[in-house]
Amino acid sequence: MSASTPHQEIRALACRYAQSVDRRDWVQLAGLFTEDAVVEGPGFTMPGREAIVAGMRQIEQYRATQHHVHNQLVEVEGAAANAETYCVANHIYARDGVEHKLDWGIRYQDNLVFQDGKWLFSRRTLLLDWAQDLPLKG
């Protein structure tokens, strides 16, 4: 069996991010970022690993979430990389006694570094391309 490539490892990192958020595994999530990493998106900036975990805990307002990782393009140059990762994020919550599903079409613009033998996010920018919020049936 051959060793994994940086592209495969970066893809796995994006999948571990989705898994961490959906499972509310904040310890695993923290381990995916450099200490001074920044996560930003529409109307928010979370500077540093502790702020990222604290900010991501806001997702606990939803009964359940599923982040589906799709297309990913990666450019590696030595111990640094840039990636664009497409994601559809589903959020289940109740409003006025009715369950709703909020869906987001996301493109993550990522800067990554190879540090301590693994790839880590140093910057993750969330671009929201579209959203829909509908009652959940079934």
From TrEMBL:
Residues 8-125 form the SnoaL-like domain. CDD domains: NTF2_like. It comes from the Bacteria. InterPro entries: NTF2-like_dom_sf, SnoaL-like, Steroid_delta5-4_isomerase. This is Nuclear transport factor 2 family protein. It comes from Ralstonia soli. The lineage of its organism: Bacteria, Pseudomonadati, Pseudomonadota, Betaproteobacteria, Burkholderiales.
